[in-house]
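Suppose you are handed only these lines of text.
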Amino acid sequence: MALDIGVLGYRFMGKAHSNAMARLPMFFPDAPEIEREVLVGRDEEALSSAADQLGFSRTMTDWKEAIEEVDVFYNLGPNFVHAEPSIAALEAGIPVFCEKPLAPTLEEAKEMTDAYREAGVPAGCAFNYRFVPAIRYAKELIDSGELGEIYHVRGRYLQDWLVDPDAPWSWRNDEEMAGSGALGDLGAHTIDLARFLVGEAVGEISEISGQLRTFTEERPTGDGETREVTVDDAYLATAEFEGSAIGSFEASRNANGHKNDHTIEIEGSKGSLKFSLERLNELEYLKKDSRGYETILVTDPEDPYIDHWWPPGHVIGWEHTFVHENYEFLSAVASGGEFEPSFEDGIATQRVLSAIEESDANGERVSL
Ligand code: SOE
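From them, the structure of the protein bound to alpha-L-sorbopyranose can be written out as follows.
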């Protein structure tokens, strides 16, 4: 019996996840059978053409109605829409897959996580970069002790789509709707990846200090007016982990020349790693005493997920990370198993985001 999927949101993330679902039967034949059943949105005309394009059977404008008729609910709406529908679905015993960050605020993230703990069904937070084969391979190296004691974690996520002060205002520029700017939109990914990669080795972030910066205070709304920007364009943070490691994190949407430049660098007593999303098939690895980094092309059949795709060197792309995470999430739903990153991971990252905001506000280091 196929799982009927309901999806709220049909723009960027709606397309990324719908494409991922459509790929599963061909590339992950052991994935549960699913139907892209209901697409939920407010604008009936746009919704109808999106449903045709994304392969959904029908549309609804009321998420409450959709939740009653589906087996799984994807919340791919803007941050300010994450809490209420996800909580309602979980209270109805419906598994939820929610885009990151979990919520605009820590309070809402707590309510969502409480609903998850009560529901006893999978609730995933779509940190898709955990599903890059090179990142999975990096985690294997770290967890097997190849890097030795972890000293530093350095993460940055740089884009430049807001460097133009005339780039239009959107919900992502509003504190009420988004919660934060580059911090929650991009920093959430980096904090989650740091937790995924070194969490077993050095524990959680225990202390953090940070600062936020807004470069463009208002942006055009397309009708000759402007609207205030109430979130950060960039953030910087330094952190201590429960173990001895330290970390530095930053993100900006004003980083001229950087398009989707998410990089992680980790150095330990026995080796170092470097990853860049703009070269996502590669992992740079330095073994202690070697003279330099070697660039490993992570596209061999024994590398995570690669045997589902192509022969060595036939590189994969950004969209494949969504196929991997959808495969894992829907398999967990069908088997009644656990999926990570869950809402527990979502709120763990939200706590760090909130601590950085607190540190920026009071100018002090914050303990978590
Ligand atoms: C921002 O532009 C954005 O779309 C993020 O919201 C996504 O999470 C990231 O994967 C790509 O960039």
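What can we learn from it? The chain has two domains: 3-128, 134-316+340-367. The mean pLDDT is 97.
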